[in-house]
Structure formats: C-alpha cells, structure tokens
C-alpha cells in the first residue's frame, strides 16, 4: 500500500528513481502504461531510446504546435515506497508537465492499493466503489443510450470534460444541456482546447459521481460561432474528432469519453486505486 498526501488544491507527486536518478513525478489517475517525461529529465537520467524503433513523430492537437518528436525505451523505475518495475518510458520534445519532471500513471506503480489522501473527511462523506474495466486499467465504463462511454478520474483537470459523442449521449438522456459559454481545457503546458460549458439537470450523475461543471470539447470554429469574442485556442483539424459526433461523410467521432475533474473530486477526501478489487474507491461528501 502507498499513501500519497495531496495538499489542498495541489497535485499528487511521488519521487521515482530511474538509472540512479531521482525524478519528481506527478501521478496521473486518468491514463495507463507509460511514464512520460520532459526531455530535460530524460537527458539528466541519461536515457537512450531503442535502436531504430525507439524514436518517431506524432501529431495531436493536445501537443503545443500540433506535433512532437518522441523517444522511448523500457527501463526499471522505482517509485518511492514501491517495488521496482520495468516500465515503458517516453520522452518528447515538448513539455508534458510544468510542475514535475514527468507524469507517472497510477496503474504502473507496483502496489495493491494506492491511496490519494486529499484532506480531512467531511462528516457526511460516503464510500463509493466503482469497478474498473480490468485490474490494470484506470478506466471505468458506463452505458448511456446506445453509447458505451469510457470514464476516467483526473485531479489535474479543473473541469469535467468530455467529447462530443459522450455529450450527445448525456443530452439525449436528459442529463445535460448546452449552455452557450466557451471555455478552455489545458491538459498540458502550452495547450488550450476550446470547450462549451453544459448545465446538468438536478441530480445528474455518472457512475454515482455528480455532474458539477461539465464541458464538451468543440472546434475553434464552433467556439467562434458561440462567442465571436472567444480568443483562439491551440487546437487544429487533427483534434476535431473529439468535437464532432458524425461528419458529413458519416465518419463517427472518437469513441466517447468523460474525464471527471476537480470540480467533482474536490468533494472527496480519499481516492483509492484498488488493484485486487479492480475498482476505484472514493470517499466523498456528495
């Protein structure tokens, strides 16, 4: 068992050792598989990529400038308090964390339970257990209407954000309606992706988690249509699949996903990644 104490409004951090170098990592609740490092941290640790296949380039609107070059390899990583494990380590030429050397997924930490202690427990707090898709994955899933939706938790996101297909399913079920207010989601340094705020109906919830300040990803053009004064974000056409349900050519947008953010999780005093139970266990006052 590992306990990570999180300061009010802060992020979960855990030192991790790789090749005799200690790095400061922010622990992510929302994705699996690889430790992702800022390039200066990888260089400080003396990391070398796999020959031939260990480098490349990918394009995505969540990357500043729309693209990034990456390197990767397998290394032994020892998070503080946990056993050493062989983990894919990726480093890119754009910053992935402003407050740490990199981002470490909770699911790669070798511990039966990882406890995120967020502060004193409220008197009215209740314990909620939500099953995950599998023992090693952080993702949960729910079905709304005709859509099966992947759901993740993330303390690093101030808002609950979803893509267009998930929002359409929620709206069709009467859980939300669009509000016509434009905002921006900033998942990485230098990234600003437009969203439209949605208004939840009374008592609206996903997997027992209340919808507090939900938002849906939209394109830059949609943001300007809603609010001509909206400043430009950083998204490009490569990320529009998250902002549409079906294109004119009948291509469907990306599989539906919802990221439960700090607007909901600030009401929790404890979040537990329970590996044997294949569940998230949350103690929250809602």
UniProtKB/TrEMBL annotation:
It comes from the Bacteria. Residues 227-246 are annotated as: Disordered. The lineage of its organism: Bacteria, Pseudomonadati, Pseudomonadota, Alphaproteobacteria, Sphingomonadales. This is Uncharacterized protein.
